[in-house]
Amino acid sequence: MKIGIDLGGTKIECVVISQDNHIIFRERLPTPKGDYLGILDSIESLVNKTLPYAPHNTPIGIGIPGTLSSDTGTIKNANTTCLIGEPLDQDLAVMLNRPIKLANDANCFIWSEFCDGAAKGKTNAFGVIIGTGVGGGLVVNHQLVNGLNGIAGEWGHNPLPHFGLEQRPCYCSKEDCVETYLSGPAFEKSFLDASPQTTATSVGSEEIVSLARIGDPLAKQHLDNYAKMLAASLTSVINIVDPDIIVLGGGMSNIDELYELVPKYLQEYVFSDTIHTPIVKAKHGDSSGVRGAAWLWNE
Predict the structure, then answer these.
(1) Do 209 and 218 touch, CB atoms closer than 8 A?
(2) What residue spans define the domains of the chain?
(3) In the CATH scheme, what architecture does the domain 122-282 have?
């Protein structure tokens, strides 16, 4: 049995995966906003509900929206900011009296897809999350790569290749991060910024894509620009790592047009006369992160 927990900005999800790799228990709770102790209590509540399905000493893998610092043993780089500076794994190990392993949520995502998803059978794989935020995870020679600073794969906080756009501050305190242009909220903001006549104060990504599909010229151009920026940003990954496959996850990965447009624009940027890198959608969809967390003890 495996227990996985995905600690997200809006929800905490817990699953138990059977020995034949099927989810036999799943439960979600809303993430307490800005409340570290509340998050601990919610995780404890979820784990208690797994007791009919998994032994009480089953190790737990947890995907987090940040990284565990090797220097301090506490969380860093988390967009759920109440986690920053907290020894989450140590606190949970004491509270739950069982082994805890933490990993960045994007690492969990690609680990799930590598073990039994879209990247199964590959040697090297890169996972991309484009949703509320932008993250990445890297597998090389069948192993998750964390890196010396614990930030391997974090392409979402590279500066966006120059597109002549206005500067945008990022929550990480830097400017012009890929995340500030390619996340779902950024996609929506850019569309509104390019629509001076509109009186709307918000618009959903799905609505923009629907407009593009029925031929709205502004929406079509916006989607095309987004695909071009995504291709330019992924070029650094391909030029440096040259993975066997790139797997997309997160809400923006559900835009089918990206799987045609991004490979086309990669031809303009990648340092190769031919590009064979598949850009594919995650097999396990929204479940990839929590499944990958459960798989951490098989890493």
Answers:
(1) no
(2) 2-108+287-298, 122-282
(3) 2-Layer Sandwich (3.30)
CA distance 254 to 257: 9
- 153 phi/psi in degrees, rounded to 5: 90, -5
**Tens-digit pLDDT profile for residues 230-267:** 999 999 999 999 999 999 999 999 999 999 999 999 99
Phi first, then psi: give them for residue 145, nearest 5 degrees: -110, 120
The average pLDDT across 156-177 equals 79
- Under CATH, to which class is 2-108+287-298 assigned? alpha beta
Query: Residues 67-76: contacts with CB within 8 Å, 24+ apart?
Result: 67/104, 67/150, 67/151, 68/102, 68/150, 69/150, 70/150, 76/150
pLDDT the model gives residue 231? 97
A 10 A CB-CB count for 55 gives: 10
Average pLDDT for 153-170: 81
What are 75's strand-pairing partners?
Answer: 68, 84
**pTM score of the predicted model:** 0.91
**Token pair for residue 6?**
């995905």
CB 290 within 8 A of CB 5: yes
pLDDT in tens, 264-273: 999 999 999 9
Asked if residues 68 and 62 have their Cβ atoms less than 8 Å apart, the reply is no
Instruction: Give the burial class of 192: count Cβ atoms within 10 A of its Cβ; 0-12 exposed, 13-18 middle, 19 or more buried.
Output: middle
Tell me: pLDDT of 23 over 70: yes
